[in-house]
Amino acid sequence: MQEAGIFRRAQWRMLLITMFCYLFFYTGRHNFGWASKDLAGDLGISYALIGWISAGMLFGYAFGQLVNGNLADRFSPRAMILLGGVLSVMANVAISFSSDYLAILVLWTLNGYFQSLAWAPGSRLISNWWRPEERGKAFGLYTMAAGSSSVVTFLVSIVILNNGVEWPYLFRLPVLFLLFAVLLFYLVARDKPSELGFSDLYRTKQPNGIDSWTTRYSAVFQNKKFMIASVSLGFESMARYGLIVWVPLYFLGSSDGKFENLWGSLFLPIGMAVGALSFGFISDSLFKGNRHRSIFLGMAVAALVLVGIYVAPADNWPLGALLMFLAGFFVYGPQANFWPLSPDMLGDRLVGTGVGVMNTFAYLFAALGEPLLGKVIDLTDSASVFVALACICTLSAATILVSERWPSITGKSE
Predict the structure, then answer these.
(1) Are the C-beta atoms of residues 275 and 239 closer than 8 Å to each other?
(2) HEC assignment per residue over 61-111
(3) Whether the Cβ atoms of residue 32 and residue 133 lie closer than 8 Å to each other
(4) With CB atoms 3.0 to 4.6 Å apart as the test, which of 58, 178, 216, 397 could cross-link to 353 if both were Cys?
């Protein structure tokens, strides 16, 4: 009984230190949106080209997820997260001293790969410590930390801009938090219970010891139900990054030099953090573990909220702040329900690979969306992006229903 209590404390310690580490990871990539306006002005480029820089990071991240999710099932998640954090800090600092479009594009693309060394390995570590019946809660808290990371990044960026500091410091100052977080994580975290003298919850390899990277990829890609769910996450991520990257521009463009108006944007990541935590419990409690229904609810309501932002009066600050909170809550909250689909649908052995493949879809879709959304802004205005994002959320909601009903459509189970 006493040992169970000790293990329980260790479980929570591993979850909390992983959450703390990821709380600061977005300071190395969600800072870009706040630099987009001045960066476009200094480089003399369109927002479509700014969108391609953002897309470069997302392509790098997508490729990294495909590779690093698989590696997290073979190597130390703890070491991978440390490496990714340190390299991301270095890439951000290098960008702050760059004045060439191509150099920034390349560095930001590399930064995407470095950032990809965290999420799937962190998911692997959490799955090593938490049993299936509690993973909805654990992944909800983990995703809440990611949403809260956006709050931290938005807050630090707004403070920097309010003090009249130039855009290069948006790539120098916030990442200092990331550097501290990954160093502390490496000191505290352990990859699995056996490293602290406990029994592991399950074996991470097949009983016969045959567990090659090709068999793991093959098992994931042959599960059509899971792959359709990954497409749904792709649309969700496209909407999410559309908000993260272009909402700062929306507020910067309407501030007219009144930087106090920027504080309304902070309600977006706050809503994301609260939504991530809430949807973890919603899927476990209200929907009794049915992640698909929980995701559908979130994305359908998100589409309505985004249309509301477009039609709402731009000068109504309280209403705008409320709608930003709701947009963050319903666009990002369902993402907490996607990650448990990997162990739920693929089994414990393929958690890292499944999360990596799913996140590859997420960031490929997000990358393709960025230059398109930038072009929409070039041709119209920054408010029009919300209509486009509402359509994308609708596609996510429709696709997750197809995933849920796939066995009844085909007449067989994957």
Answers:
(1) no
(2) HHHHHHHHHHHHCCCCHHHHHHHHHHHHHHHHHHHHCCCCHHHHHHHHHHH
(3) no
(4) 216
- Cα dist from 301 to 65, 292, 304, 389, 396, whole Å: 28, 14, 5, 12, 11
Three-class SS state of 262: helix
Q: pTM of this prediction? A: 0.74
Q: How many CA atoms lie within 13 A of 155 on its CB side?
A: 12
The token duo for 14 is: 């591993």
CA distances to 10, 124, 132, 209 from 203, rounded to whole Å, are 19, 13, 14, 10
CA nearest 337: which of 261, 397, 408, 410?
397
Would you state the structure tokens that stand for residue 400, as one six-digit string?
């997750």
Tokens of 111: 């930064």
Provide the pLDDT confidence category of residue 123 given band limits of 50, 70 and 90: confident
CA distance 9 to 23: 21
What pLDDT, in 10s, does the model give residues 260-284?
Answer: 556 667 788 888 888 877 887 787 7
**Cα torsion 177, 179, 184, 186: sign:** positive
Q: How far apart are CA 395 and CA 320, in angstroms?
A: 25
